Amino acid sequence: MFWHVPGLSAASPVDTILDKENFKLEDLLDEDEIIQECKALNTRLINFLRDKVQVELLLRYIVEETPDDAEKKRIFRFPFIACEIFICEVDVILKTLVEDEDLMNLLFSFLKPDHPHGTLLAGYFGKVVICLMMRKTLPLMNYVKSHPEIVSQLVDLIGITSIMEVLIRLIGADETMYSSYADSMQWLDDIQVLEMIVDKFSSSDSAEVHANAAEILCAVTRYAPPALATKISSPSFVGRLFHHAFEDSRPKSVLVHSLSVCISLLDPKRLVSASYQAFRSQLSHGTLVTASPETVNGMLDSLGDLLKLLDVSSAENILPTTYGSLQPPLGK
Question: Taking a C-beta distance cutoff of 8 angstroms, is the pair 94, 131 a contact?
């Protein structure tokens, strides 16, 4: 049997560090139990971490690349722990961040074109921003709205998957985000965010960029706020999508991913500004969510060009085999 004697419980390693006179933030980040103590809302630890100076240091671990000759823990451990501290969702720490313009500027400085964008730190940046979206929605959205260049910077980096995920949630193309703020997202349409995304099919040759751009647009077809849902279904937007798909000398990934967006627009299961329960209700009453006639007509205008792609009977595609020549179109 073990007996608990009041007053003799062992102090946590974090408290031991906090008892020192000249400890630094790095001393805490190097302690294995710091995340556990954050989640347990250790009062002394939280009061230390909520200070603006400490929040700034934590942000710098996340947004600033380290020299190659730096210590391993500076490259890997400290940025990871700094990110974990933010996503512990301690309200006073997040409040210090979102209520300070300089700290928010530091966080989003990661997106600047002259800044290195390593995938490791991009992942940490994305986690922190998504945490702010979920816990400090209005302050974050007000900040982004007052700095519209952030949206274009995110679009420029959609080849990085973690940045793409931030953009999906920012524009409300996620069923868990902004259910109470859908009507206040008109400003995203005003800055033409969908046009920025679809134009990546033309301005980039990267297959990753094309795939991520298509994933964002497909998400918009399912969960977007009303203004963006109307825009992406319009004949003009569909025409713009096909224009990029049929451009000469473009990679095949442009056509493939453009068509995936069109398929998503025609999908009867798409949920435009509706919940899953509403969709189930429609099914139970024998109705389906169908594509608008305007969307279909916009696609039909490009059907002729699409059919031309099936004419692949040129001699360049002949494949000699042991039993004869194999030449498209196959199946005839």
Answer: yes
Gap between the Cα atoms of 237 and 3, Å rounded: 72
The pLDDT, as a whole number, for residue 320 is 79
**Is the distance from CB of 158 to CB of 197 less than 8 angstroms?**
yes
* 219 and 111 within one domain: no
In contact, 266 and 294? CB cutoff 8 Å: no
Q: How many structural domains does the chain have?
A: 2
Hey, how many other C-beta atoms are within 10 angstroms of the C-beta on 235?
A: 17
At residue 16's C-alpha, the angle toward residues 15 and 19, to 5°, is 85
Q: Do 127 and 226 fall into the same domain?
A: no
* Percent of the chain residues past pLDDT 90, beyond the cut: 58
Final residue in a domain of this structure, among 85, 112, 147: 147
Same-domain status, 137 and 246: no
Assess whether pLDDT exceeds 80 at residue 280.
no
Alpha-carbon dihedral sign for residues 207, 294, 263, 314: negative
Lowest average pLDDT, out of 81-90, 127-136, 193-202, 294-303, goes to 294-303
pLDDT at 49: 96
Q: Locate 175 and state its tokens.
A: 């069923």
Of 147, 171, 202, the residue at which a domain comes to its end is 147
User: Which burial class, exposed, middle or buried, applies to 192 when counting CB atoms under 10 A from its CB (0-12, 13-18, 19+)?
Assistant: middle
Find the domain containing 210 and state its range: 191-307
Residue range 39-79, pLDDT digits in tens: 999 999 999 999 999 999 999 999 999 888 889 999 999 99
Q: Does residue 243 sit in the same domain as residue 121?
A: no
Residues contacting residue 113 through CB under 8 Å, at least 6 positions apart:
153, 156
What pLDDT, on a 0 to 100 scale, did the predictor assign at position 2?
Answer: 47
* Residue that has been written with the tokens 């009061």 in this structure: 47
DSSP E strands in the chain: the ranges are 319-321, 324-326
Q: Summarize the confidence of residues 138-167 as an average pLDDT.
A: 95
Judgement on whether residues 301 and 240 belong to the same structural domain of the protein:
yes
